[in-house]
Amino acid sequence: MNKNLRTRRIVTSVLLLFTTVSLLYSCKNPIEGFALTLKADYTTAPNTFRILDAKTNAPASVPAFTEVKITGKDAGLVFEPSGSKIIKMVDGAIQLAFRKGVKPTKTNPLLFNIVIEVEGYLPLIYPVEICSVKPLSQNISLVNMASLPLGTSLVKSTVTTDNGGKMAAEISIKNNIISGKNESSTVTIPMGTQMQEANGVPITGNIEASVIHFTGNSTAALNSFPGGLFSNKVKTKEGITLPAGSFNPVSWIVMDMTAGNKVVKKFSKPVSATMELSASLINPVTKVVYKEGDGLTIWSRSNGEEFWIKESVATVAKNNLSGKLEVTMQMTHLSAWAAANFNQTCEQDVKITITNNDNFITRSNIAVSKNIDGSNYVQIGEFSAELMPGSNIINLKDYFNDYSFTANDLFKAVVTFDGATPLFIGPTFFCGATIPVTLPTTDRNTIDYKLSIKCNQNFILLPDNYKVYYIKEADYQNTIINEPVAHKVNPYDLNPSGQSYYKQVFAKSVTGNANFSMISLLKSSLVAEAEYRCIIYYQNQRYDKKFMAPLKSVLDAGQTQDLEVTIENCPL
């Protein structure tokens, strides 16, 4: 036998044996402890999830590079754009990509959850459904426990159980009316109620209770709804999955109870929670304000769970003492309980036809909001699109989850684009509609560059809002001569160092499977036919590319230019 062949067989046998032992050993994941990384050119264009503070709607004040978890059915297909399985927040956003070749559709979507646990904020499980190869751009709101959003209040209380884990007397925990929140809530724990862990073991002694009450007439509070208002994770108490849709909550609470490292998960008997209703809230079923006798569905969602459970239907009642409307829920476990109507998904397309009268490509941003209670609108997301000269038909369902659009709700949109005043659409019913929009002819003050990043003969897309720097070459050489400090401009810095640099934020292309990103440079910052230097910081390395500004006639016309940057050491 050939010696080399025999050696290869021995090595193969050893490897097979090692693999088999690894797989059998304690049923342990054979790649546990390893950080799986793909080459950047093996992942798709990134999806962007901005992490916002529910109160301010500005980027949440979380530590830089905070790690998040990805769970759920298709979590194994989700990567950071560089190819790493370690997902971190960068510049106030989470960037997620998938293996190239993965093509989600409406009938075969990608399903996973973003799990965010940051000290000082309410933990969050955010379900995601990807139905298209076109990247998503969505907002995720976090609730800062030290600075709650408008329409929200927090109360803490200590309750004591006996040696059997039972309440010796009835106790009430009340969230009072405060500025910006004209409704109260009261949680009543009956005498004899036993506090239990998930396995039914009673919890004795002092128990710290925390109750946050949210009202449905505040946009900031609505942004805080656990997991988002739009969900395909709803089911009955019997475990039957319900069609996807959106919540119209009137009021909800998030309640947690702990005794040291023990967590109360359930009660031996129901605990009641009575919540006052805002007098201005519109019932989406009757189309008028809520009144005594209206029905409201009661939903629950346990900590660490992705599904909302349909618990019961409650009747709106009038309190004879306060004169206010209220609804009462019977809670059997913790922690989120809501009174909310639920509207099922629109099954039809939602299209906007945008006519671009310019003779060049126009980049646009489209933000869509949904009416919640007759007056308040909550943004469900936004995306960028290239508008070719002529007619552009955009199906909004290609950019949002199907369940973002419901049949009986009003929506509106804002279309912003270079060089012109934003256009406003609606309020109108979007389900099944084709909405015409015409962009006026513009005299743009920017010029677009198609930025291609070449890596091992393939192209990679940089994340949304990634910073690129450019400078006139003569100015660059002058700073080298007259400024000894190195000009490393970190793309994550808000105020980069270095003289005469122009910081530029750009967004990727979302047209088809384009392999380039778009940047817009101010015409006023360019001199026709002058030499410039483009600088990109990527994976802790710097890449420079010189380019010539176009002829004055081309610059004035705003004709799109091409710019290719080669990455020699392709990142893993």
The fraction of residues assigned to DSSP E strands is: 35-45%
* Structural class estimated from helices and strands: mainly beta
CATH topology of the largest domain: Chondroitinase Ac, Chain A, domain 3
Q: Which CATH class of the largest domain?
A: Mainly Beta
The portion of residues assigned to helices is under 10%
At CATH level 2, the architecture of the largest domain is: Sandwich
Tally the helices: 4
Shape: elongated
Whole-number tally of structural domains: 4
Whole-angstrom Rg:
28 Å
Uncertain stretches of 5 or more adjacent residues: 1-42, 484-500
Q: Averaging pLDDT over every residue, what do you get?
A: 81
> Could you give a short account of the major beta sheet?
9 strands, mixed
Q: Based on DSSP secondary structure assignment, what is the total number of beta strands? A: 38
How would you describe this structure in keywords?
single chain; nine-stranded mixed sheet; 572 residues; 45% strand; Chondroitinase Ac, Chain A, domain 3; disordered N terminus; Immunoglobulin-like; 4 helices
Summarize the structure.
With 572 residues, this protein is mostly beta strands. It has four domains: 40-142, Immunoglobulin-like (Sandwich); 152-344, Chondroitinase Ac, Chain A, domain 3 (Sandwich); 351-439, Immunoglobulin-like (Sandwich), CATH 2.60.40; 446-567, Immunoglobulin-like, CATH 2.60.40. Helix content is 7%, strand content 45%.
Helix and strand arrangement:
Blueprint: H1 3-24, E1 47-53, E2 67-71, E3 78-79, E4 87-90, E5 93-98, E6 110-116, E7 124-130, E8 137-142, E9 152-161, E10 171-175, E11 185-189, E12 195-196, E13 205-215, H2 219-222, E14 230-231, E15 234-236, E16 245-259, E17 262-263, E18 266-276, E19 295-301, E20 308-315, E21 317-318, E22 325-333, E23 336-344, E24 351-356, E25 362-371, E26 377-387, E27 390-395, E28 410-417, E29 423-429, E30 434-439, E31 446-455, E32 458-460, E33 466-472, H3 473-482, E34 502-508, E35 517-522, E36 531-538, E37 541-548, H4 552-557, E38 561-567
Parallel strand pairs: 1-8, 15-20, 24-30, 31-38
Antiparallel strand pairs: 1-5, 2-4, 2-6, 3-5, 4-5, 6-7, 9-13, 10-11, 11-18, 12-18, 13-16, 14-16, 16-17, 16-23, 18-22, 19-20, 19-23, 21-22, 24-27, 25-26, 25-28, 28-29, 31-32, 31-35, 33-34, 33-36, 34-35, 36-37
